[in-house]
Amino acid sequence: MRRIPVTAAVLVIAAVVAGTASENAVDPVVAERQASMKKMANAAKTISGIFDGKLAYDAAAFKEAAETIRRRSGSAMVTEFPRGSFGDPSAAKAEIDQSRAEFAALALHLETLATALSATIDDAPDGITESMRMKPGMAMGSSLLGKRVGGAAEADPAKMPAEHLFHLMLQDCTDCHAKFREKRR
Ligand code: HEC
Prior knowledge:
One of its GO terms (biological process) is electron transport chain. With 185 residues, the protein is mainly alpha-helical. Helix content is 59%, strand content 0%. The protein has one domain (7-180): Four Helix Bundle (Hemerythrin (Met), subunit A). The chain starts with 6 loop residues before the first helix and ends in a 5-residue tail after the last helix.
């Protein structure tokens, strides 16, 4: 058996859900993007459960979860963070305004991966196929930020196993939060 433990994925999701700080979000822009992030976190939990076998396989639910992340990332995500919409009650760092290109690159990278993941589900109506699984020795995660610094070219997402795509997606969540989100509570 060469199932890769999804424990890392679950930890990432637990961390983002625990970091929720929307109790006193009155600004609708902030409230809306926090709600959108939460929907992505729930979708990621569904995907993780499906890969783990903790959730019964349901192609429609799987597709919907991948599409939720695809629709909420990319330029849709970027527009949720207009100039100056930072500071309490938002956990978004003002640094987003100084690093717009990097912020957008992470959002767009997530969209690219989610698009590729969503496409793999069309060929898997009845369950996770062998080709969707990560192969032994495949990197668990590889940071977009690290890649840009290192300058290495990235493999074509359309050719990556679904499980690998999902791990890379979670890496984008983590990378963006590490740089652009306040640690609270
Ligand atoms: C391009 C940057 C970026 C990416 C990519 C990103 N996030 Fe976020 N996320 C943020 C920022 C910034 C905040 C803080 C928003 C605020 O409080 O105004 C946040 C907040 C959150 C929150 C807390 C919401 C709340 O109720 O306060 C969750 C949960 C979350 N993100 C999950 C995810 C998941 C899951 C992914 C990946 C599938 C993801 N995020 C990808 C930037 C990002």
